[in-house]
């Protein structure tokens, strides 16, 4: 494709994604108002279906955003805006995005990060990564999610759950997450591939960001680690 | 259900006490936003559906929270609203502005660094996220408001102290405070301090505002080559931060490299065509480079994007018609009819937009006559010249220096020598201390005395300024008086004179006559438009004079 065609496709893709996102938003709003009309006993924590709709919509939304972003990365159109952000606030917000599902499932979460910690990253891009991984963690967790951070050469964010952990063949991919997609494992493949791409965009000096998977960890389930230099 | 642990220990925001403005053209989503705010306890929520109403609402009422969609259909977008609210100073120092966007914010070009919202939210989001964002933004804004208030009063030293105080108590906001400290140091012209602060941050991590800061300080210290180096690095590192291009172009232009400056601005405009100011600058530099095609396209964009903006001025309209005129003159294979139609439509847009402003109408009529002579339409030339002559008597305000040159140039070409000389005469009286202007005026006028007199007035003015600097206020006032005899309507000299009289009064000689003299000079300045760059000084000196008179 020449440059003009690329631009055209990018515009079409962006506006279609925009449109679908609006539809999703409208659907969620409609659902909210239906919920509000239900008797109190049927609202809130007990209503698992609502949590599922919320979760699945946010998954669709996230995948759309990732697709658009990946397309832009391939064509060098994705702007990168690193800046200082408070890590705690950022992580808390990614959790809050999933609070309807957490509430519905009755899961608990814990953020163990120093509140005054300021870290450099691209907020919008990392939000897509973290939100998606948290969504996955909730999906596989038994009842608990833990988010921690370590400061060493840069920062490492750990997203831990108490589920069965990542399959061995995924851990072995270590960085080659493009292969994960081919195994038709669904969203996990795209999410990890995207996470890896975003991590690599973060650079400092001669260091580059990276992603790592492990099992065990403090909750005994899967651990997703993203390191940003 | 288990309570999530470690929820923020911030002071509770009482949303029932906060006034909220929701700006959203999509009724469904506006309702949903309002619903979220009501759930949080808000009671005072106003809804508007477009930018014009939003700006109006903010002028009438000081909102605590503003939630604005970025994309608002054909009118102003969210960024334009924010820029106008900041420029008109209608926001409180602790008002919180949240920009709601459909697309990921990284993918859209961010607004200028000085016009950033307190937060961006990407659709769709739930009430929890909105609340969390607002809680944090309000907490931060309230905490930093004392700094912002001192900065508004230009109390830079006190603001610096306040920054250190907040850093000591709330290390979480250190970075935000450092940015304020940089602003204060720059305002105080403590360049070494400002450079030390920004360099330290950049060495650890290049981030846009600090990198820009390093470059700006090199610029202020006149170390232009080093500034160029930084701004070049900045463009490589942050190609989406457009101030990098603006500054680079500014330095390149200053160093006499207008072609490079044009190329730099063209790159920025390619990334974000919507910036009115940048398009105008590109058009002006292209004009200087004789690149008429770029000039036309830049002013065309400026007119287009100015349609929704409070910052639109007649300049871009007139310049667009001038550039179209030059295309008609120079090139035979252009579509003449199409260009002529475009110019006519630009004139009618201009006349319509500024219909209550006689000096713009006058300027437009002259330019219209000029354009009609290029398209060889003698009837129209006569028509617009007679309109211009009729409008001239209705102009009450001083015309700017570049407008005066532009108008008298056209009038001379159209054979209206007499009117051209009138305009030059008035302008020379106003702007004789501007050497660039005098150079151009001298080429246009046939009245040799005019320039000679302006030189004399300028000498008096310069002498007076020397006495003023030496704190000899009596002598200074004397020479300003002499200068005003040659140029009685010159606003700058009159204001200099007033300032000297006040200084003279304050520094010892408590003679009431000095104040009365100042008052009488000020009352003679009646033709200064509000948007004139000298207006602020005029109103400040008027205020000061009244203050001293009342305290007697």
Give me the secondary-structure topology:
The complex is a heterodimer of chains A (229) and B (552).
Chain A: H1 3-37, H2 48-74, E1 83-86, H3 87-96, H4 99-105, E2 108-112, E3 118-121, H5 123-140, E4 144-152, E5 154-161, H6 168-173, H7 178-182, H8 187-201, E6 203-204, E7 207-208, E8 210-215, E9 222-228
Parallel strand pairs in A: 2-4
Antiparallel strand pairs in A: 1-3, 4-5, 5-9, 6-7, 8-9
Helix pairs in contact in A: 1-2, 2-4, 2-5, 3-5, 5-8
Chain B: E1 19-23, H1 27-39, E2 44-48, H2 51-60, E3 65-69, H3 78-87, E4 96-101, E5 119-122, H4 127-152, H5 156-169, H6 174-187, H7 191-204, H8 208-220, H9 224-237, H10 243-254, H11 258-271, H12 276-288, H13 292-306, H14 314-330, H15 336-353, H16 358-374, H17 378-392, H18 401-413, H19 417-431, H20 435-444, H21 448-469, H22 473-486, H23 491-506, H24 512-524, H25 535-551
Parallel strand pairs in B: 1-2, 1-3, 3-4, 4-5
Describe the protein in words.
The complex is a heterodimer of chains A (229) and B (552). Chain A is α+β, with helices and mostly antiparallel strands. Chain A has 2 domains: 3-74; 83-228, Histidine kinase-like ATPase, C-terminal domain (Heat Shock Protein 90, 2-Layer Sandwich). Helix content of chain A is 54%, strand content 21%. In chain A, helix 2 packs antiparallel against helix 4. By secondary structure, chain B is mainly alpha-helical. Among the domains of chain B are: 16-149, Response regulator (Rossmann fold, 3-Layer(aba) Sandwich), CATH 3.40.50; 153-239, Serine Threonine Protein Phosphatase 5, Tetratricopeptide repeat (Alpha Horseshoe); 454-551, Tetratricopeptide repeat domain (Serine Threonine Protein Phosphatase 5, Tetratricopeptide repeat). Helix content of chain B is 67%, strand content 5%. Chain B has a 5-stranded parallel sheet with strand order 2-1-3-4-5, with helices on both faces. In chain B, helix 1 (27-39) links the parallel strand 1 (19-23) and strand 2 (44-48). In chain B, helix 11 runs antiparallel to helix 12 (276-288). The radius of gyration of chain B is 27 Å and the shape is globular. The relative contact order of chain B is 0.04. Mean pLDDT of chain B is 90; it is low at 1-8. The chains are: A alpha+beta (229), B mainly alpha (552). The interface between A and B is large, with 56 and 43 residues.
């Amino acid at each position: 494709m020449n440059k003009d065609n690329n631009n055209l496709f990018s515009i079409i893709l962006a506006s279609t994604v925009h449109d679908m996102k609006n539809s999703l938003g409208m659907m969620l709003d409609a659902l909210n108002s239906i919920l509000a009309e239900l008797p109190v006993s049927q609202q809130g924590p007990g209503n698992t279906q609502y949590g599922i709709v919320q979760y699945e919509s946010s998954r669709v939304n996230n995948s759309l955003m990732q697709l658009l972003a990946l397309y832009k990365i391939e064509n060098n159109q994705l702007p990168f805006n690193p800046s200082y952000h408070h890590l705690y606030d950022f992580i808390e917000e990614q959790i809050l995005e999933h609070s309807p599902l957490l509430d519905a499932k009755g899961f608990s979460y814990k953020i163990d990060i120093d509140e005054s910690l300021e870290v450099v990253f691209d907020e919008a891009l990392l939000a897509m990564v973290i939100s998606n991984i948290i969504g996955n963690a909730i999906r596989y967790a038994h009842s608990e999610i833990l988010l921690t951070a370590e400061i060493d050469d840069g920062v490492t964010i750990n997203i831990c759950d108490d589920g069965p952990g990542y399959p061995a063949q995924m851990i072995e991919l270590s960085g080659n997450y493009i292969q994960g997609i081919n195994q038709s494992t669904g969203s996990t493949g795209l999410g990890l591939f995207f996470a890896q791409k975003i991590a690599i965009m973060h650079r400092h000096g001669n260091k580059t960001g990276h992603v790592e998977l492990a099992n065990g960890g403090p909750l005994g389930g899967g651990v997703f680690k993203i390191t940003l230099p | 259900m288990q309570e999530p642990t470690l929820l923020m220990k911030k002071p509770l925001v009482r949303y029932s006490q906060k006034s909220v403005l929701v700006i959203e053209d999509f009724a469904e989503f506006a309702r949903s936003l309002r619903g979220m705010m009501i759930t949080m306890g808000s009671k005072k929520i106003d809804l508007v559906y477009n930018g014009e109403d939003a700006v109006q609402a903010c002028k009438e009422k000081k909102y605590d929270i503003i939630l604005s969609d970025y994309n608002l259909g054909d009118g102003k977008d969210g960024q334009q609203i924010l820029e106008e609210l900041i420029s008109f100073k209608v926001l409180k120092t602790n008002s919180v502005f949240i920009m709601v966007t459909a697309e990921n914010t990284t993918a859209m070009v961010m607004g200028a660094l000085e016009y950033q919202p307190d937060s961006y939210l990407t659709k769709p989001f739930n009430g929890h996220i909105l609340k969390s964002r607002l809680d944090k933004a309000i907490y931060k804004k309230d905490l930093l408001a004392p700094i912002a208030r001192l900065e508004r009063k230009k109390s830079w030293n006190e603001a610096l102290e306040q920054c250190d105080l907040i850093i000591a108590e709330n290390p979480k906001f250190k970075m935000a405070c450092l940015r304020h400290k940089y602003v204060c140091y720059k305002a105080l012209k403590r360049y070494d301090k400002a450079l030390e602060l920004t360099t330290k941050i950049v060495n650890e991590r290049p981030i846009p505002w600090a990198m820009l800061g390093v470059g700006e300080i090199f610029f202020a210290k006149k170390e232009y080559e080093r500034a160029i180096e930084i701004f070049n690095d900045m463009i490589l590192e942050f190609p989406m931060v457009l101030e990098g291009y603006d500054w680079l172009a500014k330095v390149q232009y200053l160093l006499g490299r207008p072609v490079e400056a044009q190329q730099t601005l063209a790159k920025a405009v390619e990334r974000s065509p919507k910036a009115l100011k940048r398009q105008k600058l590109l058009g002006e530099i292209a004009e200087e480079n004789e690149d008429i095609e770029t000039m036309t396209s830049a002013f065309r964009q400026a007119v287009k994007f100015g349609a929704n903006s409070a910052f639109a001025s007649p300049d871009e309209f007139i310049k667009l018609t001038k550039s179209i005129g030059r295309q008609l003159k120079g090139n035979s294979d252009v579509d003449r009819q199409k260009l002529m139609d475009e110019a006519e439509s630009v004139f009618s847009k201009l006349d319509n937009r500024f219909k209550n402003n006689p000096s713009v109408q006058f300027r437009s009529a002259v330019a219209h006559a000029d354009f009609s002579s290029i398209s060889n339409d003698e009837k129209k030339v006569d028509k617009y010249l007679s309109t211009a002559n009729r409008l001239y008597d209705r102009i009450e305000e001083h015309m700017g220096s570049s407008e005066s040159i532009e108008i008298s140039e056209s009038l001379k070409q159209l054979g209206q020598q007499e009117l051209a000389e009138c305009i030059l005469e008035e302008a020379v009286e106003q702007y004789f201390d501007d050497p660039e202007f005098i150079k151009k005026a001298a080429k246009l006028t046939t009245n040799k005395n005019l320039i000679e007199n302006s030189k004399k007035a300028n000498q008096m003015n310069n002498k007076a300024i020397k006495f003023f600097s030496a704190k000899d206020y009596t002598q200074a006032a004397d020479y300003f008086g002499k200068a005003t005899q040659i140029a009685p309507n010159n606003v700058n000299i009159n204001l200099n004179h007033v300032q000297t009289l006040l200084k003279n009064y304050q520094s010892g000689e408590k003679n009431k006559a000095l104040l009365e003299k100042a008052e009488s000079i000020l009352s003679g300045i009646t033709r200064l438009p509000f948007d004139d760059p000298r207006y602020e000084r005029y109103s400040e000196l008027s205020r000061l004079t009244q203050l001293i008179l009342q305290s007697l």
